[in-house]
Write a structure and sequence with these properties.
- This protein is mainly alpha-helical and 476 residues long.
- It has 2 domains: 15-357, no CATH class; 362-472, no CATH class.
- It has 21 helices and 5 strands.
- The radius of gyration is 24 Å and the shape is globular.
- The chain crosses the membrane at residues 69-87, 93-112, 142-172, 184-203, 255-271, 276-293, 299-319, 331-349.
């Protein structure tokens, strides 16, 4: 309910959401991406999105496309919560404790907002949790460990950054396997992981795009760029950096689960059954805190389930070690619940209420309606530039996908687009000026020229969050 209410109104759309949704649309039309697929991420994430996003599109065709995509994320969030419970039980948590971990995870304001958004991390996390559930299976069947490897490969193919959890998953495999059959379990795990993961480089190899070369994209070339070519986010401990701002925003939304879970992870390391969850928190935290690396906004989504599991599990361990009768332990558990509700409850209520009642996205709804209803001439010939969020709305409104409606990042960076613009900015008729476009105009020469020659014909909202429709004027 928390995730569904107001899902199209809050938070403000991220350009990545529109990109992944457009790529899912391309999958339904027989392509891996709506422009040249350059191996920026493995495609399994938006392939899964394409499998679930068609139903909101069918049932509510009048909604902006990013709202339809967010509705498709609701069943993904539900599956993730079920898997948090399953992993909690496999970690030795009692049913009430595992349910408490789900509540910590589901009610956290960070999770409420992030689960609404169309991020690849939201597809990777359930596969990773499934891998941990298989690895810790009490039955210790070989096929469970093969399934753990396959599930983790699917997690990495959904969002590659979650691959840093591989050493943690091996710890879980070690604890979840019997010493007499451990070598078979590990062999089965790596067989499932490698054979499933090989589909991605095999695809690149068959396309002739595994190795860098002239005139084509490549998997290894893009991987080199992702690892060392993109600008870092700076140090989380230095004010003014992107990483510091991200940590500040995360802590402002939910300091209780983040700080409480991190402290619990340090304290839970000596507890064998909680060690996989605690190690997952610490490994992901160390990656986020590394100096100079790139830290995306949605990265915290990978950490949240393990924070909840570690915090709930440590509370159970401490209560179990109390001397006395079961009634005393029950009273202690009740006291912990009441204390947590008193401390975190008001802040969580305020943040979750904001998520369900705020309306930050009216400008996008109005702009999407303008694209559908305004007569701009022959839409098969009119050319306009949008951000990623409104690209699919324009395509659905009848503008020609790819070179009729152009994603602003492709203006100067995709040869397939630039060759259709022999006169540069003069070949464009309209620009849908969103905050994302205005933030990039200094980096893209053609976009900068468009802003210099554009005249507003419609404006939605005001201030930095407004959207302007600019008609491009040509000399003579």
């Amino acid at each position: 309910m928390l995730r569904a209410r107001g899902i199209g109104k809050y938070p403000f759309p991220n350009d990545d959401e529109g990109t992944y949704l457009a790529q899912a649309w391309a999958v339904r039309h027989g392509e891996l991406a709506h422009y040249t697929y350059w191996y920026d991420h493995p495609p399994l994430g938006w392939i899964q999105l394409s499998a679930v996003s068609w139903l909101p599109d069918l049932l509510r065709p009048g909604l902006p496309t990013f709202v339809q995509g967010r509705l498709a994320m609701l069943p993904v969030a539900a599956v993730t919560c079920v898997l948090v419970y399953a992993v909690g039980r496999r970690l030795g948590l009692a049913r009430p404790t595992a349910a408490g971990a789900v509540l910590l995870y589901a009610l956290s304001p960070l999770a409420v907002v992030l689960h609404r958004q169309i991020y690849l991390d939201n597809f990777a996390v359930p596969w990773a949790l499934a891998a941990f559930a298989f690895a810790l299976s009490p039955r210790r069947h070989l096929w469970h460990h093969v399934a753990a490897g396959m599930s983790f490969a699917l997690a990495v193919l959904s969002k590659e950054t979650i691959g840093v959890l591989l050493p943690v998953l091996l710890v879980a495999m070690w604890q979840g396997s019997h010493s007499s059959t451990r070598k078979f379990s590990l062999a089965g795990f790596f067989s499932g992981f490698v054979l499933t993961g090989l589909f991605y480089p095999l695809y690149a190899l068959l396309k002739g795009e595994l190795l860098p070369g002239a005139g084509h994209v490549s998997l290894l070339g893009t991987l080199t760029f992702q690892l060392g070519g993109r600008q870092g986010s700076g140090s989380a401990f230095r004010a003014g950096t992107d990483a510091h701002q991200l940590f500040t925003d995360w802590l402002a939304r939910d300091p209780y689960l983040l700080i409480g879970g991190a402290v619990a992870a340090l304290c839970a390391l000596p507890v064998r059954r909680l060690r996989p969850a605690a190690l997952a928190v610490l490994v992901l935290a160390l990656v986020a805190l590394r100096p100079g690396g790139y830290l995306p906004q949605m990265y915290i989504a990978q950490v949240l389930p393990f924070l909840a599991l570690t915090l709930a599990g440590l509370v159970q361990v401490l209560i179990e070690r109390l001397p006395g009768r079961p009634r005393l332990r029950a009273a202690a558990a009740l006291a912990v619940v009441l204390a947590a509700a008193a401390v975190a409850g008001p802040a969580w209520y305020h943040q979750d209420r904001l998520a369900t009642t705020a309306d930050d996205n009216r400008v996008y709804r109005d702009a999407a309606r303008w694209l559908r209803e305004t007569d701009t001439g022959d839409r098969d010939k009119v050319r306009l530039v949008t951000d990623g969020v409104l690209w699919l709305d324009a395509a659905d409104a009848g503008y020609r996908p790819g070179t009729g409606v152009i994603w602003h990042y492709k203006l100067d960076q995709d040869p397939a687009v630039t060759k259709t613009l022999p006169h540069g900015w003069k070949d464009i008729d309209y620009v849908v000026s969103t905050p994302a476009l205005r933030g990039e105009r200094e980096h893209l020469p053609t976009l900068r020229a468009l802003f210099a020659h554009g005249t507003p014909v419609a404006t939605f909202g005001e201030g930095g969050g407004r959207i302007d429709i600019l008609r491009i004027g040509r000399a003579g």
